[in-house]
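Because discrete structure vocabularies remain unfamiliar, we turn briefly to a single example record, giving the amino acid sequence and backbone structure tokens:
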Amino acid sequence: MQGMSSKPRLAALALPWLLLVGCAQGPTLETRLSTFIGQSEADLVAALGVPSRVHEAEGRRFLQFEQRRTVAVSAPPTPYYGPFYGPWGPRRGYWPAPPAYAVVGCDLTFELRDQRVAAFSFRGEGCR
């Protein structure tokens, strides 16, 4: 019976975090991650998935989660001085730059003490 009561609570914690990950407005990442403080390691893994790294030192346990996504990067148009055939024939001017993509990442690290989340940190250009 105790296992059934933890699933709704876990879903209530994970759902807002997952819905807000892609939003630019709303609670900050720090606010969203602070909901995990005091939660068990099992609840954290159930909400975020299996960590990419685990490290133990001096009675503390660190779980690192990596998030990577590909974003389109806009570049200024590059001058092209060769012929360009537009709807009215050849002309000279700016040729649009080809699309560019970049991979941005965010590393989330949670510190566990006594099997509970005690602190967290994050770094990377993809953290939002």
